[in-house]
Amino acid sequence: NTESLEKIRIIEEVSSLTHAHKRSKLACIIYTEMVINLIKSKDKMESYEESIKFVEKYCFDMYQDELSYFRRLLNKEIHLLPENEISSSGYVVDTLEAAVWSFLLSHNYEEAIFTAINLGDDTDTIGALAGGLAGIYYGFNSINNNWIQCLARKKDIYELLLIFNKK
Question: For the whole model, what pTM was predicted?
Answer without folding.
Answer: 0.93
